[in-house]
Amino acid sequence: MALTHGGQLSFIAKQFGLDENNWLDLSTGISPYLYPIPKIPEKVYAELPTTSNALLEAAKQYYQCQNLLPISGSQAIIQLLPTVHAEQFSSYKTTTRVYLPKVGYKEHQKAWQQANYQTRLYDELPETDQLVANAIVVVINPNNPTAKLYSANKLLSLLDKLEQLNGWLIVDEAFFDLYPQKNSMVLHTHRTGLIVLRSIGKFFGLAGLRIGFVSAQQKLLNSINEMLGPWTVNGPAQYITQQALGDVSWQQSQQLKLTKQSQKLTSLLRQYFDNTALSTTSLFVTVNSPQAESIFAQLAQQKVYVRLCDEKNALRFGIPRTSDLVKLELALQSLAL
Q1: H or E segment at 320?
Q2: Which residues pair with 215 in a beta bridge?
């Protein structure tokens, strides 16, 4: 069964009996400011899209990491990882425990459960003495939608134990671009059993390109690449991403812009919700509320679309442009709280 995600405006508009015109869509954690699309040479469309060396070099510089594989978005690897694990550790599949965040991007949980792995859901990371042989721990860092961020030291301690247990640590860093790169786990993927996912869609505002990177030991990357087959990422996506990863000036401007807009959004939401209910990143703000379903419906009726989280007790607001803050404020003013 397909999971519900943000960005399904047609479905939401139909659900509330409204047309699709003039909505304020804040349902995703994707930057409203996208990297400007450069002119793309015709040969990029004409040639088969083998992995570009120029793209790899730009990615290695951006992530400060040597072992990277371009992929068609994180989702492709999330779905593939159980197959990769089963191929390498087939004799352990029935006894392997996969620890996943109770609240978080549910495609991780769906992938492991559909592959018939034992899953355990956690509110806080499992303690190292709780882990068993061949354990897999999945961490979304920062978490979407709770915004919880684990330190590299915390995750490295967990990795130490998992290496002893012949296990894996999978870290989804889709929203990490606005945090210091020195704190990213991608810097440690030379170690056994560590897999890190990085996204281009969120920070660069280019979700439609369907491109990201997976980082791990080269042997594991080779296995993933073998399963994916040739021409995984289209040529135009590679070309645009190469330009974006190398454009340091734009990246710095984007960081400042998103930080400023996040502060404006947080300040606005504080006027209507208890500050302790807010969890903030520079790409989304989550509001915890027992009235989340009612607020979601009231906002939708005013053509403001936010993400009702899976547990139905929180709303995630994507970062709006300055010009859209007025419409959001008017909608918030009319809420019956």
Answers
A1: none
A2: 68, 196
- For the chain of 337 residues, list the mean pLDDT of each consecutive stretch of 10: 77 95 96 97 96 96 97 95 90 83 97 95 94 96 97 97 96 97 97 97 97 97 95 97 98 98 98 95 97 97 97 97 96 90
Which of the 8 DSSP states describes residue 290? T
In this structure, the number of other CB atoms found within 10 A of the CB of residue 143 comes to 20
Written as one letter, the residue type at 240 is I
Which pair of structure tokens corresponds to residue 192?
Answer: 């056994």
CB 205 within 8 A of CB 30: yes
Residue 256 has which token pair? 């400042």
Q: Are 72 and 233 in contact (CB under 8 A)?
A: yes
Q: Which residue shows structure tokens 């191929």?
A: 87
Domains of the chain (ranges; CATH) run 9-34+249-333 (3.90.1150.10), 42-246 (3.40.640.10)
C-alpha distances (whole Å) from 83 to each of 2, 111, 224, 270, 273 are: 19, 9, 9, 44, 43
Q: Are 304 and 24 in contact (CB under 8 A)?
A: yes
Q: What is the DSSP string of 118-152?
A: EEEEESSPPPGGG--TT-EEEEESS-TTT-----H
d(CA 167, CA 181): 25
0.90 surpassed by pTM: yes
User: By the 8 A CB rule, do 78 and 69 touch?
Assistant: no
Long-range contact set of residues 42-50: C-beta below 8 Å, sequence gap at least 24 = 44/235, 44/236, 44/238, 44/239, 45/235, 45/236, 47/235, 48/230, 48/231, 48/235, 49/231, 49/233, 49/234, 49/235, 49/238, 50/230, 50/231
Structural contact between residues 72 and 229, judged by C-beta atoms closer than 8 angstroms: no
Distance CA 257, CA 251 (A): 10
Strand ranges (E), the chain:
24-26, 68-71, 97-101, 118-122, 136-140, 168-172, 194-199, 212-215, 278-280, 284-288, 304-308, 314-318
